[in-house]
């Protein structure tokens, strides 16, 4: 394909044209907050959830029917190198479990009345083993990113992207090492539960990939193509589409944040609409969140993926929004103010 | 009243006859947990929420209709000393706000489909100013404690006691100082928002009370009577009744934990059925939770009272229980186990 129509250029153009913050919405939210029957600031981070300054963060009239957790299962060629405690067939089996309503994410979404949509990403075509070459060709990576942008279609007013894919903590760790510096061991964890031998193998696999691709890892989109997975590309697209359309995003854990980190490396303002939902028990997620400038709402020791941490945080955000929308004001309730 | 029929003796008798843990329930929960379609431990503290060992903690078939947030507004004589940023009339005004559905706790409970019940505690009769004498007589304190025990009536399967009362962070701080050692400044915070002058006054009031009652503060029930409030007595009764009936409890913040701390000082096993819901932004709550041996589920910088932190945590617990109850097993979903 000729240089002048490379698919990644379209993504770069979108990032170059992000809308500014919606200051009027934020001001309106803050003005109402000051009148509600509570001491100023007493709802802590619940106020921030309805009241933050970034674009799209101010959500004044949310409808629970429009809140969504959406996620993308994908398969990874690198699992052939023995980096996971589970076989790759589990990705498809879990996809069936999601469809049948039997996974954790189904129950969490049901608990909070949240819609769930699964984007299957060519499970029969795993990415290439990135220790032997780039995981994806540029057209495939760009097409998956564009497909991910469809996640906000249909009136979504809060997006919680998640993932499932045996091998994908290996891909995420490789991305962090490429973005922030190695060695692999600084970024890896036990994923679904590899033992010490498996963890050493995982580190070796990532260090080998970094050595192979090292000269080509200065561009975040090239990092995605060489070390990423389809679910990470899909989530990048979902987060970017939300940014362009003023839809706030709850960031899930270790793998979902790899998508956010790639966007952040392209332009820090690209994830200004994101809140961190939960800090994972997996490896270096806490450091990743610090680098992204995000403080997690929840810290419950989870490391499941599926968007489960983000979906749990939807419960907190829904309660925050209900307070903001439906609490009485000092005037309407006839409550005295401060002495 | 003669020594041999003192009302507090009935409370002591209840604490001396607490039931043992329900080991079968806990074992059954753990056995099911091991079969669910997730890596072991991947739901972190959500597993602990459905799976802990203390009595009453194992909740196998919870019905959302039976989850309750209940709380007790009460008035404090010590507010005459200027310890709060709001006038005491606000307690009654907020009671009306709760009844009309306009407070934060109403919205949070509605978000999660949780029942709410308010126990009004003789607002027209504030406790005595504890800088001048005991806050309550023993019969009144014991009767309020007994009234609080009614909180679990009607099939409650999860209890989240809360409170509202202008002046009650002063009472709670005095209780912590009496239990764990002074001076007041170690335990106080800004409550609803006192300024520096107000905070200094609050510290002085508590230190004066500790000097007055000091010789009589070795017995937790005597601390309740001398420094407590009706809402703290009511919550003690609610927590104790839950302990006796295997009902798990979510502990709210700074003031609610004063009730738990008094029970804990009588017998550490009396709060074995309690989980800490949220660590308050108020003063020394973090240290209180450490002394109680409880790690909070949430840390959202809230300092509102009303049981709002505990009600938010009900959302997390409901999601945890939904996962435990409704997730597929590896066998039922045909998902492969570890390699």
Describe this structure in words.
- Two copies of one chain form a homodimer.
- The first copy, chain A, has 339 residues and is mainly α.
- Chain A has a single domain, classed as 3-Layer(aba) Sandwich (Rossmann fold).
- The first copy, chain A, is built from 14 helices and five strands.
- Chain A has helices at residues 7-16, 23-33, 45-51, 89-100, 104-112, 138-148, 168-180, 196-213, 220-227, 230-244, 256-266, 285-292, 308-326, 330-333; strands at 67-73, 115-118, 158-164, 249-251, 274-276.
- A three-stranded parallel β-sheet of chain A has the order 2-1-3, sandwiched between helices.
- Chain A is globular, with a radius of gyration of 20 Å.
- The N and C termini of chain A lie far apart (72 Å).
- The model of chain A is unreliable at 51-66 (pLDDT under 50).
Please identify the oligomeric state.
homodimer
Sheet-strand content of chain A, in percent, reads 5-15%
Q: Biggest interface, which chains? A: A-B, 64 and 64 residues
Number of structural units classed as domains of chain A: 1
In CATH, the homologous superfamily of chain A goes by the name: Nicotinate-nucleotide-dimethylbenzimidazole phosphoribosyltransferase (CobT), large domain
Low-confidence stretches of chain A: 51-66
CATH topology of chain A: Rossmann fold
Helix content of chain A: 40-55%
End-to-end separation of chain A: 72 Å
Let me know the largest β-sheet of chain A: 3 strands, parallel
Silhouette of chain A: globular
DSSP summary: helix tally of chain A: 14
CATH A-level architecture of chain A = 3-Layer(aba) Sandwich
Measured on Cα atoms, how large is the radius of gyration of chain A? 20 Å
């Amino acid at each position: 394909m000729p240089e002048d129509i490379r698919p990644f250029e379209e993504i770069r153009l979108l990032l170059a044209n992000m809308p500014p913050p919606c200051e009027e919405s934020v001001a309106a939210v803050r003005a109402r907050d000051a009148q509600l029957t509570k001491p100023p600031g007493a709802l802590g981070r619940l106020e921030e959830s309805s009241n933050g300054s970034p674009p799209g963060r101010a959500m004044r009239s949310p409808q629970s029917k429009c809140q969504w957790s959406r996620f993308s299962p994908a398969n990874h060629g690198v699992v052939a190198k023995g980096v996971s405690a589970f076989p790759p067939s589990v990705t498809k089996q879990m996809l069936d479990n999601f469809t049948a309503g039997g996974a954790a994410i189904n129950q969490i979404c049901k608990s909070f009345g949240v819609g769930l949509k699964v984007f299957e990403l060519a499970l029969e075509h795993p990415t290439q083993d990135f220790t032997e070459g780039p995981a994806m060709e540029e057209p495939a990576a760009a097409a998956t990113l564009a497909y991910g942008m469809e996640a906000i279609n249909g009136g979504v007013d809060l997006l919680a992207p998640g993932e499932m894919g045996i091998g994908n903590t290996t891909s995420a760790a490789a991305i962090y090492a490429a973005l922030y510096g190695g060695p692999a061991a600084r970024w890896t964890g036990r994923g679904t539960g590899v033992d010490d031998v498996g963890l050493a193998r995982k580190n070796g696999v990532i260090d080998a990939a970094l050595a192979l691709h090292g000269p080509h890892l200065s561009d975040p989109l090239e990092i995605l193509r060489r070390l990423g997975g389809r679910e990470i590309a899909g989530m990048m697209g979902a987060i970017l589409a939300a940014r362009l359309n003023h839809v706030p995003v709850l960031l899930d854990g270790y793998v979902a944040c790899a998508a956010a980190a790639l966007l952040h490396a392209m332009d820090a303002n690209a994830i200004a609409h994101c809140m961190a939902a939960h800090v994972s028990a997996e490896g270096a997620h806490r450091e990743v969140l610090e680098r992204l400038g995000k403080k997690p709402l929840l810290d419950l020791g989870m490391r499941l993926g599926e968007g489960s941490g983000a979906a749990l945080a939807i419960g907190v955000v829904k309660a925050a929004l209900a307070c903001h929308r439906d609490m009485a004001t000092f005037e309407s309730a006839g409550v005295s103010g401060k002495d």
